[in-house]
Amino acid sequence: MIGGMELTIDDVRAAREVVRRHLPPTPMWSYPVLNATAGATVLVKHENTQPTGAFKVRGGLVLIAALDGRPTVTYSTGNHAQSMAYASHVAGAECTVVMPVGANPAKVAAVQAWGAEVILTGASLADCERHATALAASTGAALVSPGDTPSLIAGVGTLYLEILEARPDLDAIVVPVGSGSGAAAATIVARALAPDCAVIAVQSTASPAAHHAWRSGTRSTRPNRTRVEGLATGRSYDLPQRHLSASLTDFLLVTDDRIAEAQRLLATQAHTLAEGAGAAPLAALLANPDRFAGRDIAIVCTGGNASPQELAMVGGC
Ligand SMILES: Cc1ncc(COP(=O)(O)O)c(C=O)c1O
């Protein structure tokens, strides 16, 4: 589904027919040492094992498949960019990605390696959005919003089908939020497959726009100072917010330092290289031990594309 407003579980099931042509389900493992640290049974859903290193690839495949070869223009701090580049490569379609000048060089190189054109401009995602909008208007390419595009949400929803078909008895799923597309997808699937499973969103205290929008019920712009790339958005996105306001259980904030600590724990106790966004759910568990004690919780390790600087910092914390 490309047009339309709200999504349903049928859209996610239809997206799975596309995704499964290209990607096997990702593993979900529990690690006893990590469980002991968290005081809960923690199931790590390993989206860091995707070919692009992040969950967004599921959405890209669904979107590009529906566009029938039409060129696209989009904007991203990195993982949505890799997703679009990968899916365009698979479909033989043209793709241009506008990224901030300071984007993670490893992500920029990966996008280019999949054959997409990268334009580096501006300091923020907002600058990139302006540039991409003008470019799409002048070239006729389809402008793809990383947050407000239904087929991207349906595509990433397939990971929640995998989680909840395997474990419909979970107490909660904890999901990191930038635009909120992943968390919105989680609510759609959880409400259909496991209505008692809480869906809890997590954002950085340094970039809390989606959190503010959810709590206040208003479209929000907030300072965007997190060093965690996948969570670095300064505004809320309407389509995810509509789903979140309908059925998200709770929305937590964690500091960037706690996220770094969670990255270190995933490396040492779960054999997992997570980028900051992928470790934010574990950070939320560790910051709220009473809330999660003794429960069965899935945390989505949404990505593993840590920059060399990030790895150096995490290694030293
Ligand atoms: C690794 C990672 N996790 C989480 C997010 C946040 O996802 P969403 O924008 O769907 O909220 C992103 C966004 O790019 C990401 O790259």
Give structural attributes.
single chain, 317 residues, alpha/beta, Rossmann fold, 14 helices, 15% strand, globular, binds pyridoxal-5'-phosphate
Overview of this structure, please?
This protein is of the alpha/beta class. It has 14 helices and 10 strands. A 6-stranded mixed beta sheet has the order 1-2-10-7-8-9, sandwiched between helices. Helix 3 (57-66) crosses helix 7 and helix 4 (79-91) packs parallel to helix 5. The radius of gyration is 18 Å and the shape is globular.
Give unreliable regions as ranges: none
Q: Class by helix and strand content? A: alpha/beta
Q: Number of helical segments?
A: 14
CATH class of the largest domain: Alpha Beta
Order of helices and strands: HEHEHEHEHEHEHEHEHHEHHHEH
Instruction: Please indicate the percent range of residues in DSSP E strands (runs of 2 or more).
Output: 15-25%
From the N-terminal CA to the C-terminal CA, the straight-line distance is: 44 Å
* Relative helix content: 40-55%
In angstroms, what is the radius of gyration?
18 Å
Instruction: Find the CATH topology of the largest domain.
Output: Rossmann fold
CATH architecture of the largest domain: 3-Layer(aba) Sandwich
- What oligomeric state is this? single chain
Write out the strand line-up for the largest beta sheet, numbering strands in chain order: 1-2-10-7-8-9
Overall residue-averaged pLDDT value: 95
- Can you tell me the number of structural domains? 2
Number of strands: 10
- The shape, in one word, is globular
Bound molecules: pyridoxal-5'-phosphate
Query: Could you give a short account of the major beta sheet?
Result: 6 strands, mixed
